[in-house]
Amino acid sequence: MPEFPYLPQTEVEIEEMLRAIGVKSIAELFTDIPEKFDVDLSIPASADEFTVLRDLKELSQRNSNLNDLSVFRGGGIYKHFIPSAVQRIAGRGEFLTAYTPYQAEISQGTLQMLFEYQTMISELTGMEVSNSSMYDGASACAEAALMSVRINGKTKILISQAVHPEYIDTVKTYCFGGNIQVDEVNFDRKSGQIDLSDLKSKLSDDVSAVIVGYPNFFGVIEDLREVRKAIPENVMMIVSANPTALAILRAPGKLGADIVVGEGQPLGNPPYLGGPGFGFFASKEAYIRKMPGRIIGETKDGEGRTGYVMVLQTREQHIRRNKATSNICSNQAFNVLLASIYMSLVGPKGLQEIARRSYDKAHYLAKRIEKMDKVRPVFTGPFFSEFVVEFKKDLSSLNSKLLKDKILGPLDLGEFRDDMKNHGLICLTEANRNEEIEFFAGRLEELE
Amino acid sequence: MTIFDATVEGRTGFRLPEEKSYGFEPIDVLPEHLLRDSRPELPQVSELQVVRHFTGLSRKNHSVDSGFYPLGSCTMKYNPKLNEEAASFEGFSQLHPYQPEETIQGALELMYNLQNSLCEITGMDDFTLQPAAGAHGELVGMLLVKKYFELKGDTSRKKVIVPDSAHGTNPASAAMAGYDIVEVASNKDGRVDLESLDRLLDESVAAIMLTNPNTVGLFEKDICEIQKMAHDRGALLYYDGANLNAIMGHARPGDMGFDIVHLNLHKTFSTPHGMGGPGSGTVGVKTFLKELLPVPVIDFDGQKYRIVYDLPDSIGKIRSFFGNFGVLVRAYAYIKTMGSDGLKRASEMAVLNANYLRSKLVELIPTAYSGICKHEFVLKGTKLISEYGIRTLDLGKRLLDYGIHPPTVYFPLIVDEAIMIEPTETETKETLDHFAATIATILEEAKENPELLKLAPHTTPVGRLDEATASRKPKTRWSKGS
Amino acid sequence: MKKYTKTHEWVSVEGDIATVGISDHAQDHLGDVVYIDLPEAGKSLKKGDVLCTIESVKAASDVYAPVSGNIVEVNAGLDSSPETINSDAEGAGWIAKIKLSSIAELDSLMDLEAYKKHCEEEG
Questions:
Q1: Dihedral over Cα of C106, C107, C112, C118: its sign
Q2: In a domain, B183, yes or no
Q3: Is the same domain home to B350 and B463?
Q4: What b-and-e string marks burial along B316-330, b requiring 16 or more CB atoms within 10 Å of the CB?
Q5: Total domains present in chain B
Q6: Interface touch A94/B136, C-beta < 8 Å
Q7: Are residues B29 and B158 in the same domain?
Q8: Were B331 and a residue from A320, B165, B245, B269 both cysteine, which residue would form a disulfide, CB within 3.0 to 4.6 Å?
Q9: Residues of A whose CB is below 8 A from C57
Q10: Looking at the structure, do residues B218 and B281 belong to the same domain, yes or no?
């Protein structure tokens, strides 16, 4: 019998325990399972730690990782600088190996952290209430659609085609479950913003909410004030936002948003092939009882000491079952911890500077590209740190060449839309050093 | 004190590289109403302040790393450190989801192999790794059911049957897929009552959701009959894999006749719970449902691993990108470490530990159901009320003073004053003995000084908190001067 | 005249207006009430329909209409002070006033004595 470092029972103890139970063998503990189900699993046998780590290291090295590349690709997941302290503190077992804070007295660390996180999200989004996370930006967006239907009882969702395509698809899948109709609204081919006249033409009494990006998938900043003006008061405005951009953009809550969601990965989370990050979810106080997910609140104990608890649990599945506001149970609390540490370190000025630099660098590169012959910036709307460029030549072969220079080039939008062949989405953040940008611009000039 | 209270204007824990600005400012382009009008009130503190603040918070948490965590139905087993090490490799953590396939062959291979391992462990034909949590997997499962009947043109099936002992997520997930919920009663032995099921199971039922072993820790011995009843009447059978930790290498849901399975990698496959997440709720199906899985799926053509989006009958996307990849790496490392022999052994030791602890506790508090249990068992705390005037809740709160996380209480709903205990395989016999001895001590205390329990805990950072006021007028964020 | 239902609502009638709430026994069982999803005035209900949902910290319980009729008034004060149900369930903690459509329905309800017995039997 091989030794298993995670299994402490010795043969002597096993005998003793079996005697105490009153059975003769371990097999006797499984006699309630029909014998015909017995199976020998055809997977490799166990291995020691060192062999497993060696094999996994080797597997990981078969990937090209972003630390070895100049990254000009975003599209929902962004490479930012992450201070060392984020991972170092978060890695403590008391965070990593704790369960959901159902026992408040011995979960004050988790609960206070989530309470502080909710405050930070409220600040960024300009909304009164934040929950303590959803799975990711896409599912948060879908849950926002369902929530709007819970609030106003209408049955149709309008979503801008300029929202992240994976979010659109996720909203559709959730709405398939809820028997809710989803209609797409065109974007303006010139500005890259939602087409307001198409939006108005699609409004009807059964429209529950309109979903827009801020900035949208093309990096273009939607004019939320104009969107709000275009829709009646009883139609909700759901905004899917980039949290970094919110450091310099007017908070959606101040422009009439009812629900603000987004992908939290840019806040101190490694890209991890797109997960785990987390979805943030914030809303108006008036709708708090219709919100999905866990919400933390401040209170006192019998001696008057401040403490934190999960509030409004009657919304949740473990109490309300099929009448719950959502089925969500596990969320992304650990990723929220990374974000909380990150936001505490960078502070308000740091986050604004990160956003400002991302903006500055992106606009510089866009200007450089404007001067090139064979590439053309596509949209005229104001953008944050991503912009769309149309290439005259085949973008995928350009990207292959760039990769040889260790550049992860523009995201090929032809993969998402047939009418955007050879359109590339270029992304910059504060992590793109100026010399990288010069090199990339130079290669674009040569290769085009 | 919150981190906001520590703020001093001008302090920071962060510095960016010195770089020349290109001189582009948002204010030059954006209309004023789209520019932020006030700075977000984030903390302004030094790096050491941040480190001390969060270290201080961590000390207020109970965790698997700090003590026994016998929380029924949650499988709070040890989370091996090697998994964390593997997940921290930059070749896994520093990958962009939109990198070209050829630059992430290692990641795709890992996912492909994990899919295959999970197929083998569960007896299913294909897996999707995308769902981010168990409940997310359940939703995917119910959407697969819905899509399956839609493609068949069968629109009459509007109901899903769940046992009255089911996790709350089961009815909640089925409801999100648009189904009406019908509860089937448990019999006096704690298993699904076949006669009731027979009555409920008609042409309007799309699926039955079952957990096996069920939430009282008992194997549904009649699974073959249930399977036959369901399939004879055209319904699908769904397996909630929350309790797979009891039966690995002893039975497979696929062989029991289940059509759809979800697993909680953060339970059975040892990935950490992280204060509530991230998890992973991978979903396995039989071949006839394969084409309906969410996109993308990972495939292998013999030479290259490929990301496939072209699945016309797919239910669509259920989140962005590929799922919680970082969690998948940890689960893969665990399966590699434990192997076929170790997984089977883990289940055996989980069942041994549960039965041993049960045999010790049964002398103190009656069990809800007799006979051998699987990985967990349920005690019935009504005796505490009648004999000592204390509730299950009080017993649980007193355990906190002894540095032990209480078992799950008041669930499943079919047992009054339920105390649900799952020790897991990674705990020593000494820990189990100590737990039983602690329960005995607390019952003595209950006899002599019940107030001690009613006012517990006494040694934690805070005592019992006023949850009623917190929910009446929720204060969900910090604000200045409050 | 005050009457009770098996599902623990009380009803008190003056003329054709029935004032409805939950019994003191029920509020004791629920624990601290934190929220009431109040019904809308003007809505018409049949006896046995869900009138509203009362939430405590860890439970949500439906309250059923003890009589049929039209809701003419709701106790809006419960919105900001749901704890009134705990302090005075059968007085200031009333939930709604219903204009009776059939006074005969009251005959099937229990008086206080019968209700007390019913509670004892339930345990």
A1: negative
A2: yes
A3: yes
A4: bbbbbbbbbbbbbbb
A5: 3
A6: no
A7: no
A8: B269
A9: 313-314
A10: yes
Evaluate whether residue B417 is within a structural domain: yes
Contact C83 B472 (CB under 8 A): yes
Domain containing residue B375: 345-467
Binary contact (A250, B339; C-beta < 8 A): no
Across the interface, of A36, A273, A299, the residue whose CB is closest to B95 is A273
Are residues B303 and B373 both part of a single domain?
no
Select from C32, C36, C54, C79 the residue whose CB has the most chain B CBs within 10 Å, as the one to mutate to test that interface.
C32
Inter-chain residue contact B468 with C34, CB threshold 8 Å: yes
The amino acid sitting at B351 is V
Report if residue B99 sits inside a domain: yes
Same domain (yes/no): B312, B352: no
Q: Is B89 found in the same domain as B25?
A: no
Partner A contacted by B86 (CB < 8 A): yes
Chain C residues whose beta carbon lies within 8 Å of the beta carbon of residue B385: none
Neighbours of A422 (CB within 10 A): 18
Q: What is the pLDDT along chain A (448 residues), one digit of tens a residue?
A: 678 999 999 999 999 999 999 999 999 999 999 999 999 999 999 999 999 999 999 999 999 999 999 999 999 999 999 999 999 999 999 999 999 999 999 999 999 999 999 999 999 999 999 999 999 999 999 999 999 999 999 999 999 999 999 999 999 999 999 999 999 999 999 999 999 999 999 999 999 999 999 999 999 999 999 999 999 999 999 999 999 999 999 999 999 999 999 999 999 999 999 999 999 999 999 999 999 999 999 999 999 999 999 999 999 999 999 999 999 999 999 999 999 999 999 999 999 999 999 999 999 999 999 998 878 889 999 999 999 999 998 999 999 999 999 999 999 999 999 999 999 999 999 999 999 999 999 999 988 6
CA distance A201 to chain B (A): 25
Q: How near does any CA of chain A get to the CA of B388, in Å?
A: 23
Nearest to B316 by CA among A327, A170, A180, A139: A170
pLDDT in tens, A11-42: 999 999 999 999 999 999 999 999 999 999 99
CB burial class (10 A; 0-12, 13-18, 19+) of residue B74? Answer: buried
In this prediction, the answer to ipTM > 0.95 reads yes
Q: Which domains does chain A have, with CATH numbers?
A: 66-81+348-447 (3.90.1150.10), 84-341 (3.40.640.10)
- Select the residue of B410, B467, B472 nearest C82 (Cβ to Cβ): B472
Residue B475 lies in a domain: no
The Cα of C62 is separated from the nearest Cα of chain A by a number of Å equal to 11
Largest CA distance in chain B: 77
Q: Is A294 exposed, middle or buried (0-12, 13-18, 19+ CB in 10 A)?
A: buried
Distance from CA of C61 to the nearest CA of A (A): 10
Range list of H helices, A312-426: 317-320, 333-370, 395-404
pTM here is 0.97
Neighbors of chain B by Cβ distance (3+ pairs < 8 Å): A, C
DSSP B461: S
- pLDDT tens-digit profile of B11-27? 999 999 999 999 999 99
Q: Number of B:C CB contacts under 8 A?
A: 18
Based on the fold, state whether residues B101 and B234 are members of the same structural domain: yes
Cβ-defined contact of B468 to C35 (cutoff 8 Å): no
Has domain C2-95 been given CATH number 3.40.718.10?
A: no
Residue B7 has pLDDT above 70, yes or no: yes
H or E segment to which residue A425 belongs? strand A423-427
- For residue B57, the Cα-to-chain-centroid distance in whole angstroms is 23
Task: Check: CB of residue B401 under 8 Å from CB of residue B445.
Answer: no
Q: Domain with B459 in it: what CATH number?
A: 3.90.1150.10
B467 touches chain C (CB under 8 A): yes
Chain A CA closest to residue B343: A46
What is the domain-level CATH number for residue B211? 3.40.640.10
Q: B-chain residues within 8 Å CB-CB of C79?
A: none
| Domain layout of chain C by residue ranges | 2-95
Mutant choice from C36, C37, C57 vs B, greatest count of B C-beta within 10 A = C57
Q: In which residue are the tokens 């462990």 written? A: B121
What is chain A's alpha carbon radius of gyration, rounded to the nearest angstrom? 25
